[in-house]
Amino acid sequence: xxxxxxxxxxxxxxxxxxxxxDVAHAVPLARALVAGGLPVIELTLRTPAALEAIxxxxxxxxxxxxxxxxxxxxxxxKEAAAAGATFLVSPGATPRxxxxxLETGLTFLPGTATVSEVLAVLEAGISEMKFFPxxxxxxxxxxxxxxxxxxxxxxxxxxxxxxxxAPSYLSLPNVGCVGGSWLTPADALxxxxxxxVESLAREAAGLR
Length: 208
What we know:
By secondary structure, the protein is α/β, with parallel strands linked by helices. The chain is 39% helix and 16% strand. Helix 1 packs parallel to helix 9 (194-205) and helix 3 (74-83) runs parallel beside helix 4. The two termini are 27 Å apart.
């Protein structure tokens, strides 16, 4: 299993945010992302298959940096870590959830959407975080406007971002990467069209 990078935000320009409905899709999907030049995945805990999918990828695709997303409780953080996740991502951040993610010992990106939330996460000693839902919360212009007042924070914006809008985020000094669900369309997964996933990953890997 790869070691967690010093900064998740500097690993790839686009972190694939994935919803897996069928465990059988997990391994070929992860392999397609690696083949396309994006050896990282945020597998969201939104389906009953999610933890088993994380276990399968951890066992069979050790070259990928494997994250669990949509972590909303300390128990989910613990379960994701036990399943083999090497990083965690949450949609928001409460003191209890922050403590629960810290207890796993894994790198994590807590979710923020307002300046007050960003400040609260900074006060907890965490400078790298998720900005979610990015487009609905003001998008790239919002992040640009807070880059000076909260200069210590760096972000992975996620939510509503597309291949076309990603560069506007990636050009900002306080953005290291973006999260994207467009890399793994539901119809491609359902059809087992891993070549399409690989192609989308290759395009995203070239974004800056």
